[in-house]
Design a protein that fits this description.
The protein folds into two domains: 85 residues, Arc Repressor Mutant, subunit A (Orthogonal Bundle), CATH 1.10.10; 59 residues, GidA associated domain, C-terminal subdomain (DNA polymerase, domain 1, Orthogonal Bundle). It is 60% helix and 2% strand. The protein is built from nine helices and two strands; from the N terminus they run αααββαααααα. It is elongated.
Length: 204
């Protein structure tokens, strides 16, 4: 919901039904199974949930952290359980009974999802930080977006019509995704370097 509100307030949209969490910068963290982790603390602070419910949530977080420590500290066939849980062919039900019984099955399943996502989420965060530092990168006037492989036709059309002058402006256009900005950023860097090299060669 926060993603949809941000789109409406900061970008506006002609097609509200086409607002998706996949367009959010931290989209890998916006999952239904971790909504309580992202929102319960805030809900409690503003009085939307009771202290009893908040206490239950904190107990759940304690169990999740306990399961994480167990997964890190125990090995199965020489490999840390935390690493095995990231593998697609390994299920929490494959855990030894003495390990599996330490916390409930739903907690183990939630931990497995967290572990599988954490590497991708970390790389996404790093990419977002790099892109944030490049928001002032200029986009050449008259750039032909049809030359940029990987951009969606919808993205090409919007960029060509609105003609943003920087990556920051482009990122604020409704419907332009972080992936679009990443592709544009990479293309600009490669071509600027190529043009600078060509210009330097002509001066030699």
């Amino acid at each position: 919901m926060g993603v949809l509100i941000d789109d409406l307030v900061s970008k506006g949209t002609e097609e509200p039904y086409r607002m998706f969490t996949s367009r959010a910068e931290d989209r890998l963290s916006l999952r239904h199974d971790n909504a309580d982790q992202r929102l319960t603390g805030r809900a409690f602070d503003i009085g939307l949930i009771s202290e009893t419910r908040f206490h239950s949530f904190k107990q759940k977080m304690h169990l999740l952290e306990q399961a994480r420590m167990i997964a890190i500290g125990n090995k199965l066939n020489g490999a840390p359980v935390s690493r095995l849980l990231k593998q697609p062919d390994f299920s929490v039900r494959d855990l030894p009974s003495e390990v599996l019984s330490c916390v409930s099955l739903p907690i183990w399943e939630l931990l497995q999802v967290d572990l599988k996502y954490e590497g991708y989420a970390a790389r996404q965060t790093e990419l977002n930080q790099r892109l944030d530092r490049k928001r002032n990168q200029k986009i050449p006037d008259g750039l032909n977006y049809d030359k940029i492989a990987g951009l969606r036709s919808e993205t090409r059309q919007k960029l060509a019509n609105l003609r943003p002058t920087s990556l920051g402006q482009a990122s604020r256009i409704s419907g332009i995704t972080p992936s679009d900005i990443s592709i544009l950023h990479i293309w600009l860097n490669r071509n600027v370097l190529r043009d600078e090299f060509a210009a330097a060669s002509e001066l030699e």
